[in-house]
Amino acid sequence: MLIKTTERFVEEVQFMADAADAVRKIAMEYFRSPLSVEDKADNSPVTIADRAIERSLRSRITERFPDHGIFGEEEAPVNLSSLHLWVVDPIDGTKSFVTGHPLFGGLMALLQDGTPCLGQIDMPALNERWQGCIGVASTFNGSVCHTSKCTRLAEAFVYTTNPFAFEGEMRDVFGIIADTARLVRFGGDCYSYGLLASGHCDLVIETGLQPYDYLPLVQIIEGAGGVITDWAGQPLHLHSEGHVVAAATPELHAETLVHLASLLDRTVT
């Protein structure tokens, strides 16, 4: 597979930024305003804002890149067989959004032949944005960002969005990681990965994510010097199970995988 050169992604990177600028206005129009909240089949909430933002993004993608596919949270996939696939999450952290908490974000990724090549985290209420592009350093609000140099779990600041998402043996393993780490914080959704890319935390571990949750993060984390994979250490792709671990350094990632491997071994046996 021949991935586009970085220079040829300039148009797509600018497109992501322009699209995020446009849909920020939609998000902030509805944020902290009375909203009707519906529960989807998986019991996750959705609002008119989620749907309006995704419609806008899909329209912009179709207009600019008519031969590209689209995979989003709120509507059916389009042209999944395309060489280029946009992955969008209109509001990552809808639970935060509907409760007035500013740590919700918009996510976009571009896959080429299944490989995540571009990624963006946009935080409308905070006016913050991370972008990642294969082959170049990731940026935060236009300036290069770097993960921390933390190499040991005992020194790590760890985030997970929802500790209750870990069930059964997963909870036991996460408990070991939490007990070993220097500090553990909860909440954040996509914002935790931005903090990781900028060196403010060192490890994020999650379960139950969807492709539109994790694929936009890949190039941001890797371009900042970090490592992001599934719990078995395999690259993330459209059909990954949604168990995600992102670390500031290869050493910290490897140590965390040792703990996760004990769970995977028990699951297999």
TrEMBL record:
E.C. code: 3.1.3.15
Binding site for Mg(2+): 73, 89, 91-92, 213
Gene3D superfamilies: 3.40.190.80, Fructose-1,6-Bisphosphatase, subunit A, domain 1
Residues spanning the membrane: none
GO biological process: L-histidine biosynthetic process
Record-level Gene Ontology MF annotations: histidinol-phosphatase activity; metal ion binding
Protein family per UniProt: Belongs to the inositol monophosphatase superfamily.
Protein name according to UniProt: Histidinol-phosphatase
Organism: Pseudosulfitobacter pseudonitzschiae
Lineage, highest ranks first: Bacteria, Pseudomonadati, Pseudomonadota, Alphaproteobacteria, Rhodobacterales
